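Renewal narrative, Specific Aim 1. Our central claim is that a sequence can be written position by position from structural information alone. The example that follows is taken directly from our test logs and has not been curated for this report. It begins with the structure tokens describing the chain, in the order in which they were read.
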């Protein structure tokens, strides 16, 4: 029997994606601190965002200064710069360099989300399902599972794997939507095809149990093995146990077929 565990997005995953973005933008920014600052002071939103990224990371010839970073992110966000809106929203959610203010974080995430930013959309889904520790305050945004589902769906429809994973969890639990294992499987499957290791484990588990999809040990083994190939440490050991639990009821021919499918699998296989 597989040891099923419910998975929810960890906000740190979203934060790490957010903070990966300024670094990427900075690499393409106008070279030179003085020139960057001059552009920012003349109101160039991209330069303001890049300057904020410099101060946030302490790179580019400046000393790390998060309040100053937030100042430049604010100027860019006020001009509609979606990445600045997203990043400043993270600052307000965490209280990093600005007073913690979940309501302002949601406002900024919404501005970026309405522009199609999948990270902001996913953040809104997370916040509306309940702000996770350690970011909770006595002024948190009220839980609204239907709104959470709406934002997860918007990001998932754009191919955001974490949001597809979260939407699958919503369908499995019946949070904000009618409980529907078939829908849950479909969204786990989409996230798995996009490379999410946890989703691959869930797809394997659902194939093994026949939950939301016809029972199929060959497909179960394949998806669990794909997850094993991505995992490390304790997570990998758990996945190996799950995979072997399926293998114990398979014939040698079935295992060989599952391994053939693993070897043949590519992202286009989705």
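The sequence written for that structure reads:
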């Amino acid at each position: 029997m597989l040891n099923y565990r419910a998975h929810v997005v960890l906000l740190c995953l979203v934060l790490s994606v957010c903070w990966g973005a300024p670094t990427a933008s900075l690499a393409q920014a106008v070279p030179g601190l003085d020139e960057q600052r001059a552009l920012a002071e003349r109101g160039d939103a991209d330069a303001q965002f890049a300057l904020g990224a410099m101060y946030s990371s302490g790179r580019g010839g400046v000393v790390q200064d998060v309040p100053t970073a937030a100042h430049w992110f604010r100027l860019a966000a006020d001009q509609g710069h979606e990445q600045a809106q997203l990043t400043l929203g993270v600052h307000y959610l965490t209280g990093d360099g600005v007073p913690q203010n979940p309501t302002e974080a949601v406002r900024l995430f919404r501005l970026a989300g309405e522009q199609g930013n999948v990270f902001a959309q996913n953040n809104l889904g997370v916040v509306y399902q309940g702000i996770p520790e350690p970011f909770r305050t006595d002024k948190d945004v009220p839980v609204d599972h239907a709104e959470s589902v709406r934002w997860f769906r918007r990001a998932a429809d754009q191919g955001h794997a974490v949001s597809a994973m979260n939407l699958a969890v919503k369908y499995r639990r019946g949070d904000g939507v009618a409980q529907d294992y078939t829908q849950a499987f479909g969204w786990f499957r989409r996230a798995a095809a996009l490379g999410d290791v946890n989703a691959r484990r869930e797809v394997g588990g659902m194939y093994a149990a026949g939950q939301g999809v016809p029972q199929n040990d060959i497909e179960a083994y394949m998806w669990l093995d794909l997850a094993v190939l991505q995992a490390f440490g304790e997570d990998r050991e758990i996945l190996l146990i799950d995979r072997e639990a399926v293998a114990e009821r398979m014939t040698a021919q079935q295992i060989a077929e599952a391994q053939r499918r693993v070897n043949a699998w590519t992202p286009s296989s989705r």
